[in-house]
């Protein structure tokens, strides 16, 4: 994919940039299949009929469907409350198992250092837990770049709710019109679009084994303002790295 077709057509003055965490800034290779299966197992133990939930759905949609099923059932009082208390702990435990293998995505340190030198306000919006997010940033050597972080553990809506992104931008003091959200997943684009925040995509790292062409098509369909192959290319888009050598 040529850079000329994926680079932003123009750059308005930006004040703040919010990044997704896993896959975008760090590589952790979570066992998402296991996480989804565990949430389904817990939901069924608390009264959701077997087969109602699909492990092929994203975790947040499995949780939403489980809540709906429990509210609609005539099950024992308190099952929904117990589910809400139990499933986050299970996810947290599986997430933390990935911490020893978590590393910075290539180019992350250079990108963030360049953005910081230009005075951008930087934040992280993640569906990971607070414990994992902060530990992952520290292990990857990126924690010092972020004064602002909103995780799944924070009170209120979580990503992909646009309210989560808007709440974080409010903490950062960044107006929507001067903000950018960067992520590697269609859910990130969904969140940014709903919040009316500009979105730039970074294609999944080659270690994620995703099809770059298919991923780029998904992001174009989601309205990404730019699509970078990797973080060094994103740095060039944001004018914090030298232009790539001509072929």
Description:
By secondary structure, the chain is of the alpha/beta class. The chain folds into two domains: 3-29 and 103-237, HAD superfamily/HAD-like (Rossmann fold, 3-Layer(aba) Sandwich); 32-97. The chain is built from ten helices and eight strands. The strands form two sheets. A six-stranded parallel beta sheet has the order 5-4-1-6-7-8, with helices on both faces. It has a two-stranded antiparallel ribbon with strand order 2-3. Strand 7 (198-202), helix 9 (212-221) and strand 8 (226-228) form a beta-alpha-beta unit. The longest helix is centred in the middle third of the chain and has 19 residues, at 79-97. The chain is elongated, with a radius of gyration of 19 Å.
Question: Top keywords for this entry?
Answer:
alpha/beta, 247 residues, six-stranded parallel beta sheet, Rossmann fold, 2 domains, disordered N terminus
Gyration radius (Cα, Å) is 19 Å
CATH structural fold name of the largest domain = Rossmann fold
Element order: H for helix, E for strand = HEEHHHEHEHEHEHEHEH
Average predicted confidence as pLDDT: 91
> What's the name of the CATH homologous superfamily of the largest domain?
HAD superfamily/HAD-like
Helix content: 40-55%
Unreliable stretches, pLDDT < 50, 5 or more residues? 1-5
Distance between the termini: 14 Å
Strand % is 5-15%
Q: Specify the number of helices.
A: 10
Domain unit count? 2
By CATH, the architecture of the largest domain is named 3-Layer(aba) Sandwich
Query: Strand tally, please?
Result: 8
């Amino acid at each position: 994919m040529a850079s000329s077709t994926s680079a932003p057509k123009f750059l308005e003055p930006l004040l703040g940039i919010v990044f997704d965490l896993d896959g975008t800034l760090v590589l952790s290779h979570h066992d998402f299949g296991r996480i989804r299966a565990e949430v389904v197992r817990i939901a069924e133990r608390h009264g959701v009929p077997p087969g109602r939930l699909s492990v092929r759905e994203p975790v947040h949609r499995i949780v939403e469907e489980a809540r709906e099923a429990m509210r609609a059932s005539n099950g024992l009082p308190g099952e929904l409350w117990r589910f809400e208390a139990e499933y986050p702990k299970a996810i947290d435990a599986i997430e933390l198992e990935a911490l020893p293998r978590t590393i910075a995505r290539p180019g992350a340190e250079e990108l963030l250092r360049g953005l910081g030198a230009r005075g951008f306000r930087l934040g992280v919006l993640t569906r990971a837990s607070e414990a994992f997010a902060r530990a992952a940033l520290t292990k990857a050597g990126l924690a010092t770049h972020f004064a602002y972080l909103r995780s799944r553990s924070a009170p209120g809506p979580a990503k992909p709710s646009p309210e989560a992104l808007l709440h974080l931008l409010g903490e950062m003091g960044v107006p929507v019109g001067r903000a950018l959200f960067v992520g590697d997943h269609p859910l990130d684009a969904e969140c940014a679009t709903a919040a009316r925040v500009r979105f730039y995509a970074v294609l999944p790292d080659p270690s994620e084994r995703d099809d770059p062409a298919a991923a780029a098509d998904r992001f174009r369909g989601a309205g990404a303002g730019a699509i970078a192959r990797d973080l060094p290319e994103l740095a060039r888009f944001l004018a914090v790295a030298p232009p790539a050598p001509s072929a």
